[in-house]
Each structure stands twice: as C-alpha cells, then as structure tokens.
Amino acid sequence: MKENTLYIKKHSRINSTVIMLPASKSIANRALIIDALAGKKSPLKNVSEARDTVTMQRLLNSDGPIWDVLDAGTTMRFLTAYAAVRAEEITLTGTKRMQERPIKILADSLQELGADIKYLNNEGYPPIKIKRIKDQLTSRIKIRGDISSQYISALLMIAPELPEGLTIELTGHIGSRPYIKMTLAVMKAFGVNADWKENIINIPKQSYHPAQYTVEPDWSAASYWYSFAALSEDAEIILKDLKDDSIQGDRRIADYMSQLGVSTEFTPQGAHLSKKAHEANASFDFTDCPDMAQTVAVICAAKGITCKMTGLESLRIKETDRIAALQTELSKFGARLEENEDQWLLVPAHSIAELRSPEFDTYHDHRMAMAFAPLSTLGDIKIKDPEVVNKSYPGFWKDMNKAGFKISEL
Ligand SMILES: O=C(O)C1=C[C@@H](OP(=O)(O)O)[C@@H](O)[C@H](O)C1
Ligand SMILES: C=C(OP(=O)(O)O)C(=O)O
Q1: Is the ipTM here above 0.85?
Q2: Digit-coded pLDDT (tens) for 223-236
Q3: Where do the annotations place phosphoenolpyruvate binding (predicted)?
Q4: How far apart are the C-alpha atoms of 34 and 208, rounded to whole Å?
Q5: Which domains does the chain have, with CATH numbers?
C-alpha cells in the first residue's frame, strides 16, 4: 500500500485559534465496555470518533466469531476481559504490531478466574481464542503492575460482574497509575464502588446502572497544542471545554509545560494557552503519563532544553518501540535520546535553524506524527503516513489548517 506524505509549510505565529479537541478515547472505551456490561442503555455523550473507539463500538455490536481490534491496545485488552464474562467463544486479533504486544499477564489472570484461553500463533500474544468463565475459580488474584495498566483496568471493569467479586493485589512497580484511577472513576459513574488501599483493590459483586455520561475532551490530544504554543514565536490557543479538573492523568502536561514555556489559564470557555519563559534544563517522570513522552522530547529537542526523562520503560511495547522511533527521528535534526540504565537524557539540537524540510517517519504511531508536526512552527517539514492520527485524533490535520498551517500532499 502506498504511504502518503504531507508537506507542511513553516508557520510561526498562531493567532487566537479555538480548537475543539477530540474526546478522550481512553474514557470512551471504558464507558462503552461498562455500558455494554450494564445492558447498553446509557446515553453516552461526546463519544470519540477516534478509530480505537469506533472499533470498540463496532465490535461490541458484533457477535464474532472474530473480533479484529486493528491497532487499539485498550480495545484488545478490555474486550478480552469482556469476552471472558460475556462471549461463548471469540477469537481476538489485530494488526501485525498488535500481535507483538503482550497479553499473557491479562490472559493468565482470566485463566485463573476460569476462562479458557488459547494462543493461536505465539504464546503470550494475540491472536487468542477465548471461552467465557463458567465457574469462578478464585476471588483473589495477583497481577504485576509494571508492564501495562490496561490489564488491570480490563479486570477491574469485569470484577463487579463476577459472582464472588474480585480482589486484585498489584505487585511490583505500578506504571500508568492514573489510568487505573480513571477506570475506577468511570465505574463509579455507573454505580460501582471499589476500595483501593495500598496495593489491594477490592470490588465486591455489584451491578452497573445505566447513566448519563459525557466523555471529557482528550488531554493527550491537548499536549500537541501545548507543543505548537511552546515552539511558535507567538501563540494564543483556546482548547475548548478542556478543564483543569479531569480524570485523565495526562492533565499533568499543563504542569510540565509551565516549565517548557507555556502557561495555562482555565476559563469557562476552556484552557487558554499562551507563551512564557522556559527553563534551560528540565527533568520529568513519565511513569504516570507515558503518552506525553514523545511530545515533551520533541519540544525539548527543538528548544535547546536538556531534559532528564524517567519512566519510559513501557514505551517499548506501544504502537511501535517509541524509544527507538524517537532516537531515529530526533537524530534527523541533530538531537539525541541517550539511554543510561533506567533513565534517558534528551540532548537537544544545536541549532534548529538547520531544519531543511526533514521527512519524519511515523512507524504506524499516531503520537509520532502529532509530536513531530509542531516542528513546522520552525521550518518546512514532511510527515509520512499522516493517516496514523486517525487512531486518536482524526481531525488533527484539519485543526492545523484552522491554526493557519498550509499542508499539502506530496
Ligand atoms: O488505559 C488506557 O486507556 C491507556 C493506558 C496507557 O497504557 P499502559 O497502561 O500500557 O501504559 C496508555 O499508554 C494508553 O494510551 C491508554
Ligand atoms: C498507547 C496507546 O494506545 P493503546 O495502548 O491503547 O494502543 C496510545 O494511544 O498512545
């Protein structure tokens, strides 16, 4: 299949632009699973048009026998758990990359609970065939927290449906913790209570109730507009309806960006971004917000900010190996991401004035495309395979047009 390339002309000033962000695909995919468990009676508002969410909706309305989640991690993990309480027999599969993203930790837990799961190609990876739990074999499981929080969220959402409820003991370091809290917050909105003390989460048997539920605008998508603001000469951007008080961990980008040259004012209209001075060096931990790492790496690389980055371990098993992808693409304009045991040092480019319409590869990863696109505030750039953004933010290129960027297809 031919891969398109976009040519984006340099545009350095963003005059008061109002952006309607997409809805959070993370929240939408939780609400959809929970609504399906509650009998599909809830009026869900502002459900994202992100491909991951559209795929979730389509599969929840299909009896199978095959559910192809494409490249959606949450869709794969949440539907696997859902199938374990609902489907007689389902095969779950996905893209080539999805077949390289591990699922064993979740599958082992579901098997302990009584589901029958078979790996159809490689042990520990999709595709899998799953038959639902007939008799619950245990009400307490241990699960490690350092590989992907999505396994834990998946189990939490089905927990109140199990005849004996479920107690989950999290072991080791817990990554992406705010996503676990987000899961519990959406469950609560549909009437289910959980108790989380230290590393034990307890969910007694309960019923979900239909609810009026509105999905928040996506803070992860907002991060790219922070990047446009940080890298531009001047910017006034309003992110419509984006609120300070959010169940999304990526809300933290507003605090990180305060050090990187963007101030945020929350008004009744939304989040109002404007420029301010930035620091010369920075140090950030991405354990709680791994999806923000690429955005921050590119900003620091281009603004001459040396940045110590920790908590990047989980980046290796996402849409691509994001560490390797960043290392290759940052080197195209003279920046480096150096690995040193469990921390990374972002060494910025000497002079970004050397940007001579570099072409950035995107590795089937929406966040590579959107993290590198703001470099067009500094010079002409090319982005390969731009459709990748459809996974979470289908309107991204149109929104760039709205902000004044001239984009053409090569
Ligand atoms: O639960 C979620 O909605 C997500 C959890 C995170 O994954 P990990 O828990 O695998 O870090 C995050 O990277 C992903 O984009 C969405
Ligand atoms: C990692 C991501 O998604 P998922 O794991 O759901 O594919 C992401 O959107 O950055």
Answers
A1: yes
A2: 999 999 999 999 99
A3: 25, 73, 101, 150, 322, 367, 391
A4: 7
A5: 5-22+217-409 (3.65.10.10), 25-214 (3.65.10.10)
